[in-house]
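**User:**
Everyone, produce one record:

**Assistant:**
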Amino acid sequence: MSSWRSFETERLILRPTSIEDADFIFELLNTPKWLQNIGDRNIRTKEDAAAYIRNKMYPQLERLGFSNYTLIRKNDQEKVGSCGLYDREGLEGVDIGYALLPQFEGNGYAYEAAVKLKAAAHNEFGITIINGITSKENLSSQRLLEKLGLLLVGTTRLPGEDVDLLLFKTDPHSV
């Protein structure tokens, strides 16, 4: 997977998530905030995490050239979270998403990574409108989407889900 584009910010390396990240993805997808705000992906083992990467992340990366990125802190190579651009079923256009391990929250990593991926979406992948979806209860995610310049435009419900999510979009006039 090394042929796919990685990105850097002042403090982070954003590289496409790979099978070598299975332990990290297992940990991240089972954090209380992930389960509460994003949902249970039924990742119970490292092998489940590897299969999730192989079956959910790789196909989009191969098809579109972007997907989920593992956020690696430059100063110590610690994996702190993930950020990505997602082509989600039931959502028109590309969605930006992010999650951090609890011990790395509150340091601006999600914003730093999302700003970089938002710019890459426009400048490298030709994406003009970016969506953001979040639960009505996830106030920190809502604030981050607003800080990224996305505007609340309504609600949406993804296929197979029973909860409405807030839908944010970039302002097409600001591109």
Notes: The first strand starts at residue 7 and ends at 8. Strands lie at 7-8, 12-16, 68-73, 79-86, 94-100, 130-134, 150-156, 165-170. The chain has one domain: 7-174. The two ends are 30 Å apart (CA to CA).
